[in-house]
Amino acid sequence: MSKLTLGSYPHLLGFEQLERLLERSAKAGNEGYPPYNIEQTSDFSYRITLAVAGFAEQDLSITIEDRQLVIRGRQHDDSEGRIFLHRGIAARQFQRMFVLADGVEVGEAIMENGLLHVDLTRAVPETVVQTINIRKG
After folding, report:
1. Is pTM beyond 0.85 here?
2. What is the CATH number of the domain that holds 75?
3. What tens digit of pLDDT does each residue of 99-118 get?
């Protein structure tokens, strides 16, 4: 039995890139940390919220790499000279990736009460009707 791909459907033309995006997204290796929410805030906007308690703004970076929103956190270990009787809060690093569709733009990022909010907007697609002239060959 062969694997079905988007290229297996002759009426779906030019979707090979979508298939590659899905494969790349599956391989992104997102673990469960930090927890996050994705909410739709209007018909054409979204908000990603990550729980980043213990991270300062300078510990976080937000980049767009090849249509992927990449959010990284890197805490500096300030435990030198300190003696912990119990250490349940670790200085942990993370990388969280989200694949962006064409037309999705990243807006502002807001840090509030240990939560990082990243706002996204999707451009309203124009309806385009194009007439193709037929010429004699």
Report:
1. no
2. 2.60.40.790
3. 898 889 999 999 999 999 99
